[in-house]
Amino acid sequence: xxxxxxxxxSFHYYTKWSDGKRGSIEGTAYKVDPSSDxxxxxxxxxxxxxxxxxxxxxxxxxxxxxxxxxxxxxxxPSRNYxxxxxxxxxxxxxxxxxxxxxAKSEGYDMS
Length: 111
What we know:
Residues 16-110 form the Lipocalin/cytosolic fatty-acid binding domain. This protein is mostly beta strands. Helices cover 12% and strands 42% of the residues. It has one domain: Lipocalin. The protein starts with 7 loop residues before the first strand and ends in a 6-residue tail after the last helix.
């Protein structure tokens, strides 16, 4: 996995909550083992975003990316947290259900 041709990548994450509120945060991701093909990342966020002096680092595993890079399944190794990511604001129900099944097969509790 290459991230902009470098061992790290900066990103800006946007979200829309179910109540309609929006949020965003900036971070930096880098591979845990640069020599590995596994997509196991350390992600560093600065909290709160307006005062970027307190870094929070988390483990993120990229479990699945579709061939067109439109949706992804990302989780933490503890299997306590999982994200279904999409470039679009809406995911087709069939694709969503497929991602849920993939998450279950990886040991995530989707109840």
